[in-house]
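User: I'm new to structure prediction. If I give you an amino acid sequence, what do you actually give back? Let's try with this one:
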Amino acid sequence: KQWYQRRVRGIRPQPHSVVRINKMLTCAGADRLQTGMRHSYGKSYARVARVTFEQELLSIRTKKNNAKHAFEALRRASFKFPGKTEIVVSRDWGFTDIEASDYIKGRKEQRIEFDGSYARIVQPKGCVEKINRQLERSEIAFKG
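Assistant: Good question. You get back a string of structure tokens that encode the predicted 3D arrangement of the chain. For your 144 residues, that looks like this:
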């Protein structure tokens, strides 16, 4: 349980839309007590998130040795959502846009710094010609 709480980024779509309910009476003589659909704004019933097709709902970051537990946790959570769900394992490092192999190379070359749950690309400093030569020799291609 603690492993799950520390590694989950959370539910991606936030529930902002409010669903309302217009309660109707079902007893005898109820037609004389209520107004039907007149003034039927209703009371707030629940908050929901609007999602689109193929939108990411949950994200988990974990080490490779805990991947089996994360996969099982997502599989069990998928039963709570209607429709077909798919669990995708990313090649990226954590929640960054950098692939795991590129992240490891960048850390060795000291071009990427660990910054909490994200990574920060170190901007080169110094002579422009020297920087251009370093970038040409580097094999890492960053997204974005």
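You can read the tokens as a compact description of the fold. Here is one thing that stands out. The first helix runs from residue 2 to 7.
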